[in-house]
Amino acid sequence: MAEADDPRIYFAAERTLLAWVRTGLTLVGMGFVVARFGLFLRIVRNAPDAPTHAGSTWIGVGLVMLGSLAIGVAAWQHAKFWQALAKSQQTQPGVMRWSVMFALLISLIGLALGGYLVVSANNAETGRAAQTTSS
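Below the sequence we write its predicted structure tokens.
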């Protein structure tokens, strides 16, 4: 088999995309846990009105955004690599498009999760500030 016709080249690129998606999902999950850790601590301490520390929220949001960015860049790189392959090495375009679109969708959902975490943290702070001024 000629090296130009070796399907293992494309499959290696596919495994690399999947590894980056797995890494990105891990970062998104870890970021969500870190962002919500302050809420968990308030519940454990039984002090719902305790002041929040924005550090865990912002570190968590940063991890969520980093994971989403990793997935999006991996999808973009995979699509570029696929286009650079010789026609004999390319799989069906639909197969490649599906995996790239799936990765991009996960990336967009992660970005939306990061936005939600920021908005919910701001809303919680605004509500807590309003309660203290009215009391």
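The radius of gyration is 21 Å.
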